[in-house]
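INFO  loader      accepted 1 record
INFO  loader      residues=437
INFO  predictor   begin
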Amino acid sequence: FNTASWPRSEIVFIPHEISAGYNFVTDDQGKPAPAQRLNTRELAVLVRDLPPFSGRRYTLLKQGERPALSKLTASGAVIENDKLRVRLDEKTGGIAELRATDIEANLADAAGGHAINDYLYLIGDDRAVLQRNGPVTITVRERGPLVASLLVESDAPGCHKLLREIRLMAGADYVELLDTVDKKRLEAASYTAKDGKESVNIAFPFHVPGGEVRLDVPLGVIRPEHDQIPSACKNWLTIGRWANVSNRDYGVTLVTLDAPLLQLGGITATLLNSQTNPDGWIKKLEPTQKLYVWAMNNHWHTNYRAYQEGPVQFRFVLRPHRGRAGDAENSRFATAFSQPLVATTACGPAPSPTPVLRVEPSDILVTAFKPSDDGQALIVRLFAANGTPANAKLTWSKPVPKTVWLSDTSEKPLQKLTGDIPVPGWGVVTLRAELPK
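INFO  predictor   done
INFO  writer      dumping tokens
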């Protein structure tokens, strides 16, 4: 099922409890669908062009055909398909080369000493003693033809073990990073002293000369420094689903699914315990294309646990692109990973391939679609994700609502609507669509 308001082509991961013994798949027309059994025992299935708010039934088979797919290889420290090439540093395991076939530049900037997806560990606040992971072992974990991946294993300070899987799909214009930090408990005599404070950081230095940084925030997008009030925190920033670095010619979108704190230009989240001196905070952010995820820390000493331990996975996605990627495009792309296609065991009639609702233009996203609390209507919430005003056209399948009302969080009918619906830039419009009795 596609629970989003735009058509999607993605890989679905079916648990082995459902798919065990079945390695072939056909779609609702009986045509073979690309599928691959992974080392996780999941069955990866490529779903193409699933319309918004609709479903499609697939059949799992013990024997069948596998359709041909485009180039996908993983060997040594390199993984590539027909759109991307990723090369790892064989000593550190970081991404030393990130290339798209239609962009001449290497989008990874290792000139400053850090590669993309480098693990950086800090005790206290002295960045001169920033620690790195130990020597790495790189192996091929998945070999395709649908999914390929490299597994980077190493020791790392603050960890029992560090695992980083670099995963690429056939035909995909993005690469996934699955970083598992098996955190070791920090033993300290005092968790308020500098040697009782720690942080785990992950580097994303991009080579996008003159690139501007844009960050996804709830129902908006900000440019650091430009769109912040003077007293806003600049040592670290919070983001929703994505960050983007772009110049006029090309850029990279970074999707972060588990780590919402970001540092710009370097490791800047180094303020320990409570802060009483305002001069300790960064006053101005200089232009940069280097991002650092602040993944874990115990810097505060209030109602937070003094240490962290156990395995935690941090998931990231990198997508190079030509030109400046639109904010709505970035939101659609990032939402696909936090709101993946839903796969369930089939029962009853097959789902309809016709969308329950279509919304145009594509830059207007549906952020909520639910039955009303009184059960008499459908509630639809529209968001103009590109920051520009737009008129939304809604196309319903049967049953067509008899009346559409402007509403709000009360879900009450406030104003009857006909025709296209104006949505202001970065604005949210809530609709109540009353169903026939």
